[in-house]
């Protein structure tokens, strides 16, 4: 079972295995059709496509009308139905990939763990690693029988906005922001209407988890770097702009052997939507 990362060579050995499901998670936060268009042009042989906006996210406003962030989690039952449409069963090994250093694939990795499915890994190096190895690509959309996966107790933790707000006083946990340093400082904010960060948060840019070739740094290096940011993962909460790249930091922590951190799904986009909440710059 692969539970964090898988290499292109390892995936290639199982590309015809019916018990494996490969999922293309490519996306663009500006051009929302870019991922599907890229998939239609060419993808890893046998891979299926999921859309971050419609299949890995839920309604942006709650029943009370409050904004929940740009990519709030869907209901667990809704996500299970997405997985069943993709042919995922309880014993399926899932592999997620993208062309962006794992920033979107990590969201799917985390969400499968969220519904209690441990057999999920991110393709290390993504599509670039697959193509550079000369491995088979395809433009066909595969047909799979529906799966029967069931939700199980979650393998991960989440916190909500109220908990993060209370933490401003209690200091119970460390909040780690995965956005680029300039956005963390409140500069060059082009996605959310307000720039800055949650008071008390520290910055760990998700791209710092990667080597120049787009693959993850080795576990020892990640452990050394991440322990400088997170003294105790069980008392840490990962966030970003909308709960996506925070999952990349959560994956890096798992690779480093530092499990236990939680996700704040609403992240900065939820936090900053209410002007009564404090902002640091």
Automatic annotation (TrEMBL):
Q: Which InterPro entries match?
A: Rhodanese-like_dom, Rhodanese-like_dom_sf, Thiosulphate_STrfase_CS, TST/MPST-like
Stated name of the protein = Sulfurtransferase
Q: What organism is the protein native to?
A: Zemynaea arenosa
In terms of superkingdom, the source organism counts as Bacteria
Q: Name one GO molecular function term.
A: thiosulfate-cyanide sulfurtransferase activity
Q: Supply the alphabetized keyword list.
A: Repeat, Transferase
Extract the Pfam families matched here: Rhodanese
Q: Which residues form the Rhodanese domain?
A: 16-139, 169-280
């Amino acid at each position: 079972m692969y539970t964090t990362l898988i290499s292109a060579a390892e995936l290639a050995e199982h590309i015809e295995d019916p018990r494996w499901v490969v999922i293309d998670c490519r996306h663009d936060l500006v051009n929302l059709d870019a991922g599907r268009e890229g998939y239609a042009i060419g993808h890893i042989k046998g891979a299926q496509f999921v859309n971050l906006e419609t299949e890995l996210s839920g309604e942006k406003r709650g029943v009370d009308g409050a904004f929940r962030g740009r990519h709030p989690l869907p209901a667990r039952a809704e996500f299970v139905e997405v997985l069943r449409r993709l042919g995922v069963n309880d014993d399926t090994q899932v592999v997620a990939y993208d062309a962006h250093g794992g920033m979107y694939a990590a969201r799917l990795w985390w969400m499968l763990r969220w519904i209690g499915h441990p057999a999920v890994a991110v393709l290390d190096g993504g599509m670039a690693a697959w193509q550079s190895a000369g491995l088979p690509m395809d433009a066909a959309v595969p047909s799979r029988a529906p799966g029967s996966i069931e939700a199980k107790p979650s393998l991960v933790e989440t916190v909500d906005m109220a908990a993060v707000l209370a933490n401003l006083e209690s200091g119970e946990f460390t909040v780690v922001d995965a956005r680029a340093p300039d956005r963390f400082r409140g500069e060059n904010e082009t996605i959310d209407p307000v720039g800055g960060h949650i008071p008390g948060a520290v910055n760990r840019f998700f791209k710092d988890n990667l080597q120049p070739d787009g693959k993850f740094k080795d576990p020892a290096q990640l452990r050394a770097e991440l322990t400088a940011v997170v003294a105790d993962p069980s008392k840490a909460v990962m966030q970003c702009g909308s709960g996506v790249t925070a999952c990349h930091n959560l994956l890096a922590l798992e690779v480093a052997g530092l499990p236990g951190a939680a996700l704040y799904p609403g992240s900065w986009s939820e936090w900053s939507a209410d002007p009564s909440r404090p902002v640091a710059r």
